[in-house]
Amino acid sequence: MALTLASRAFDLDDADAVFEFFYRQGWTDGLPIVPPTEDKVIAMLAALRRGRDDVLALVAPRMAPATAEKVAINMVMAGCLPAYAPVVAAGLVAMCAPTFNLHGIQTTTNPVAPLLLVNGPIRGGVELNCGRNALGPGRRANAAIGRAIRFILQNIGGGTPGEVDKSTLGMPGKYTFCFGEDEENSPWAPLHVDRGFARGDSVATMIGAQGTHNVCYLGQRGRGALDLVADAMATKGNNNVFIGAGQPLVVLPSGHAERLAAEGFSKADVQAYLWERAAIPAASYDAADIAPMFTPFVHDGMVRVTRRPGDILVVVAGGPEPYHITYLPSFGETEAISCRIDA
């Protein structure tokens, strides 16, 4: 018997009418969508390899069930290919883990969004950009996978901008926030191996991240580049600093990583170096400027960006030139979660 869908169907004339109707219902991100026709949704369901009513996760703050059918609809709307389905499914499960604190991320005034970082062989299979412009436009997989996560947050979880999503200013990562690690050009083990997975596993890691902060270093020393990154990290308005928790992300192009490795730095050395130097004298704080609900983490008289060096996540991605480095503070009240991709 042919599969039938449980969702409501609408009889609309063309793609323009579909977009206008969905936009007026508050089901889009403001950009045109791919009409989720029955045949496209059924094909996406097949790629998810789950029954129509199977629940992948409960999405905060509504704690609404993300059934395979609803996930498939949102993936089609976002422009996903069926091959992307396992990546979206793993990212969804990761961001709904309790310690990720999706409820807080969905409802805060902070400009934070779930960032999906992908490791392993599936990156090549879906043509995910890990190199030049990895955090920018131009690659369907990055754009559509990240956008599908956004639609799930909004249409299933209820994170409607301006209503439940109370972000004061927002940021572009709330449209789409997805890239892969450039494992092939890194001198170190990739993130998923650091987190206990086998190198041959495909893994989705969700990080509650703020916007990108570019650090430009045009010198010749790896250590010199880290000094500038540490300086960028140690700002009093950084969530990781005033909350005293979280897992910020440092994205190093392969040129910087190779230079650091040549100088004898392991990834753990990089984390320790940044943790030691990304610090602010506790005596420089005025008590009136610290929110009463938060307590910065102080070690040896210095306010630290994280509680442990290993909480600073370091990955390699982007173009090869040892020029620019990207720092992404985290929400603070969140834990990065990794899930194996069932590809």
State the gist of this model.
By secondary structure, the chain is of the alpha+beta class. 33% of the residues lie in helices and 16% in strands.
Which consecutive residue ranges, at least 5 long each, have pLDDT under 50? none
Distance between the termini: 27 Å
Inertia-based shape = globular
Helical segment tally? 12
Strand order of the largest sheet: 4-3-5-13
Structure class: alpha+beta
Mean pLDDT: 95
Report the order of strands and helices: HHEEHHHEHHEHEEHHEHHEEEEEE
Strand content: 15-25%
Helix proportion = 25-40%
Largest sheet: 4 strands, mixed
Q: Give the total of beta strands.
A: 13
Rg value: 21 Å
What layout of secondary structure does this protein have?
Blueprint: H1 15-25, H2 38-48, E1 55-59, E2 64-67, H3 68-78, H4 85-95, H5 102-107, E3 113-119, H6 122-125, H7 140-156, E4 178-180, H8 191-194, E5 203-209, E6 213-216, H9 222-233, H10 239-243, E7 249-252, H11 254-262, H12 267-277, E8 279-281, E9 298-299, E10 302-304, E11 313-316, E12 324-328, E13 337-340
Helix pairs in contact: 2-3, 3-7, 4-7, 9-12
Overview of the molecule:
The protein has 343 residues and is of the alpha+beta class. Helix content is 33%, strand content 16%. The protein has helices at residues 15-25, 38-48, 68-78, 85-95, 102-107, 122-125, 140-156, 191-194, 222-233, 239-243, 254-262, 267-277, and strands at residues 55-59, 64-67, 113-119, 178-180, 203-209, 213-216, 249-252, 279-281, 298-299, 302-304, 313-316, 324-328, 337-340. The strands form 4 sheets. A 4-stranded mixed sheet has the order 4-3-5-13. A 4-stranded mixed sheet has the order 6-12-7-11. Strands 8-10-9 form a 3-stranded antiparallel sheet. A hairpin with a 2-residue loop joins strand 9 and strand 10. The longest helix is centred in the middle third of the chain and has 17 residues, at 140-156. The relative contact order is 0.15.
